[in-house]
Amino acid sequence: MNNAVKISGNIRNKAPVFTGDDFFPVIIASTGVSSDSDSINDEINKAKIAVSAGASIITDHSLTSNIDYIHNRMAEAIDVPISALAAYEAAVLAKKSGYRIDDQSIVEIIEKQARRGIDIITLHATVFNSDISLIEENQRIIPCTSRGGTMMLEIMKHTGMENPYWKYYSDILEIAQKYSITLSLGTTYRPASVCDSGIDDNLYFMEMSRMAELVKQAHAKNVGIVVEGIGHAPINRIPNIVRKSKEICLNAPYRVLTVATDIALGYDHIASAIASSVAVYNGANMVTCVSRSEHIGLPSEKDLHEAVITAHIATYCGYTARTNNFSRDMEMSKARNEVGCLGLITAAIDPTIAEKL
Fold this sequence. Notes:
The chain is α/β, with parallel strands linked by helices. It is 48% helix and 11% strand. The chain has helices at residues 40-53, 67-77, 86-96, 103-116, 131-137, 147-159, 164-167, 169-179, 202-220, 238-248, 268-281, 301-323, 327-339, 351-356, and strands at 5-7, 17-19, 26-31, 57-60, 82-85, 120-123, 182-185, 225-229, 254-256, 286-288.
C-alpha cells in the first residue's frame, strides 16, 4: 500500500517534503529555547546550519512563555517545513493558569500553531488517565521518558480531564484539513532504556494499537499522518519493533528518534546512527537527528551540523541496503579506480568537509 505523505501547510506554502516507503528517509533536526533568556537568533542560526547540512524539517522544542513569538520567528526565517509539539504549549498555559484550563483551550492551540505556519504538529493523543496505574505496575526501569507525554499526564492529573487530543480528534482532523498540516502521533511509552525495549513491550504496543485508530480516521479524512516510535533499542530488537509498529499502524510513515545503547554519553550521535541505520533498513521513513550532546545539554552549532551529517550517513546506509540502489557508491568507486583513494569529492555526503580535509 502506498503510504506517501506530503508535508507542507498552506500558510507559508514552502516546498513540500514527501515521506513514505518510496522516498529517501526524511531527516529532522531539533532546535528550541529552554528559557526566556535564551537567544532565538542563536536557534534560528542553528536551524539554518542544519538545513544547509541536509535536514528537511526543523522541529522546535521551545518550552517558554513566548512560544508563539518563537514559532513566528522560525516560520519567517526557515525555508523548510517546521514541526512543533502541541503539548509543550499546552503545558506552559496550564502551569501559568494554575491548571485552570479546559480541554477546548488545549485543542485551540493546534489551530493557533497551524496559523503561525507550523507544518507538522505532534500530538500526544494516546496517553490516558487510566495509564497512571499501568505505569506504576509496569516493570520498566524508566517508566516514562516522553517529555510531551509526561506533560499531558500532568495536565490530566491536575485537571481530571481525559486526553483532549483523543477526545476531540475529529475536530483536530478538521483543523488539519483546513491548514493542510500533517499530524505526527507522539509516543509517550517509547522505551528510555535498551533494557526496557522489546517486542513484548506491553506499554509501547498498547499505544501503537491506539495510534492505529487515529491513523485510520486520518486516512478516512485524507489527512497526512505519521507515527513516532522506537526510542532506546538494541539492534537485534529494532527490526521486529519497526515492522510490527508499521503493520499495526496501517503502514503509516514511521518516525524514529533512537539510540542503540544507553552508555554512549557524549557520543550519542554514533549510537543513534547505528540504530537509525537498522531502523531505516527495516522500514523507518523519518529520522530525528541525535547530537553528541543528547542527555548532556543543548547542542552547539557544530554539534547540530555533525548530528545531521551523521543521520544522513545512517539513513543512506539503511536505505541503500533496503533498495539495493548503490549508484552513488558506484560513482565513488569508479572514481577511486581511476584517480585513487580520494575518488570524487562531489559524490561524498559532506563534500565541504571532504574538501577541507
